[in-house]
Amino acid sequence: MKCVICGKEGEYRICGECLAERKKVAFIENFNLEFCSKCNSVKIGKSWTKIDFSEAIQRMVSEKLRVEPNFDVHEIIIMEKAAVLRGVLNGDPVEVTVPLNYRVRRISCPRCSMESGGYYESIVQIRAVGRELREKELEIAKEIVRKTISESEGEKEFLSKFEIVKNGIDFYLGSRKLGEKISKRISEEFGGRVFETRKLHTRVDGRDRYRFTFLIKLPEYEDMDVVVKNETLYVVKNARLGKGIDIFTGKHANIFETSVAVRRNSLGWGIITNLDESSAEVMTENGNVVIVQRPFGAEVGKEVFVFEYRNRTYAFPVDL
Ligand SMILES: [Zn+2]
Ligand SMILES: [Zn+2]
Questions:
Q1: How do the domains of the chain map onto residue ranges?
Q2: What is the pLDDT of residue 124?
């Protein structure tokens, strides 16, 4: 078949080149590009995405491009006021230039508006039991918050504010999910358990909206402290996991809910000089000899930690 215009041999009544010259085979609908100047994200479809500005235009153009059904576009080159489309039309390779009109609207995205408006759905509260929060714990907690937010995509994944309070810190977060994730990570890092509570905040369209509080209590004890629960003394072996050892039976035990009897830096040192069934004689670092209840793992010549608790002296092997 010959093209009716130029006479070129082909499969169509009119060849691609002639068609492109005579007919509008493609156009791009005008569009607005909404851009948040605060976080540099762009609205594509219904969601806001952090992408490069030129990539955003590229994507909007592909969305707004309308072409003749037999025009197969392979490449779109974007220029300031036009786009060049390269592809195949009626069997011929063609290049078509179409006008490009769009407006950029600088607005605050929903996330940034909520963030600057102080919006929050959950609070993560970290409290140290019977002590101040340590500087190091504060730093790690802030780092966990920062990292978790940077890994989250959603519109409400932000920190509204934080407050240093007595024995701890409060983080106000944009979503419940974020609060849940952060509190889980913090409790995994430090030990301690998460207590979740909710409070009715408001009603929206007849539905109750809650605010959630995730309270993490950090234990008072540290590794190698001596703790007490129901008159039993334990040495803390893993504060993070809440594990300790009974100093008289050597049994491993869960030490949540215990209180500190002696801090590790208040422990004295000694050596076992004599033993019987129920007691041990210990020579302390000051040269005093004391008799204590026989601890688990006692052997003559073994080094022990020595401490006083409620007017009695105790000892346990340093390698317990
Ligand atoms: Zn032709
Ligand atoms: Zn934004």
A1: 16-107, 114-218, 226-317
A2: 97
* Distance of CA 82 from the midpoint of ligand 1 (Å): 25
Quick one: pLDDT at residue 208?
A: 85
pLDDT at residue 192 greater than cutoff 80: no
Per the structure block, which two tokens stand in for 284? Answer: 């302390």
User: How far is the C-alpha of 127 from the C-alpha of 187, rounded, in Å?
Assistant: 11
143 close to 232: Cβ distance less than 8 angstroms: no
Please state, in angstroms and rounded to a whole number, the distance separating the CA atoms of residues 236 and 194.
21
Helices (H), the chain: 16-22, 53-64, 110-116, 135-150, 176-190
Structure tokens, 221: 């004890």
Class of domain 226-317: mainly beta
**Which ligand is the nearest neighbour of the Cα of 17?**
1
Nearest-ligand number for the alpha carbon of 7: 1
Cα atoms found within 13 Å of the Cα of residue 21, Cβ hemisphere only:
8
How do residues 251-285 score in pLDDT, each as one tens digit?
999 998 889 999 999 999 999 999 999 999 999 99
Give dist(CA 303, CA 317) in Å, integer.
6
Residue 311 has pLDDT above 80, yes or no: yes
Question: In angstroms, what is the C-alpha Rg of the chain?
Answer: 36
Q: Give which of 208, 183, 203, 202 is closest to 194, Cα–Cα.
A: 183
Q: Is the pLDDT of residue 152 over 90?
A: no
CA 161 – ligand 2 centroid, Å: 17
